[in-house]
Amino acid sequence: MAIDWKRYDSTPFYDELIESPGRPRDPARALAEYLASLDAGEIHSRKQAADSAILEMGISFTVYTEGENIDRAWPFDIIPRVIARQEWDQVQAGLEQRLTALNLFIDDIYNEQRIFQDKVIPRYVLNQSKNFREQCVGIKPPHGVWAHICGSDLVRDGDGQFFVLEDNLRVPSGVSYMLENRQVTKRVFPELFENSSILPVDEYPTQLFDMLAAISPRPQDYPEIVVLTPGIYNSAYFEHSFLAQRMGAELVEGADLVVDDDDCVYMRTIDGLERVDVIYRRIDDEFLDPEVFNPDSMLGVPGLMRAWRKGNVGLANAPGAGVADDKVMYAYVPDIIRYYLDQEPIIPNVPTYLCVNEKDRAYVLDHLDELVVKPANESGGYGMLVGPHASKKQRAEFAQLIKKNPRNYIAQPTLDLSVAPTLCGDEIEPRHLDLRPFILQGVRTDVTAGGLTRVAMRRGSLVVNSSQGGGSKDTWIVDEEN
Amino acid sequence: MLSRVAERVYWMARYVERAENTARMVMAFNLLALDMPKSVQLSWKGLVEVTGNEGQFDNHYQRDDERNCVKFLLADDDNPSSVLNSLRAARENVRTTRDLVPSEAWEVMNELYLFARDRIDQGIGKRGRFDFLSEVIQRCQTLTGLLAGTMSHDAAYDFIRLGRNLERADMGTRQIDVGALRHLKKDGEDPEPYEGLLWTSILRSQSGFQMYRQHVKRRINGVDVVRFLLQDNAFPRAVTHTLNQVQDALEKLPNNELPLRLVIQARRHATSAQVHELIKEDGLHAFIDVLQRDIGEIHGANATTWFLAVPAQGQAVA
Question: What letter would DSSP give residue A60?
Answer without folding.
Answer: E
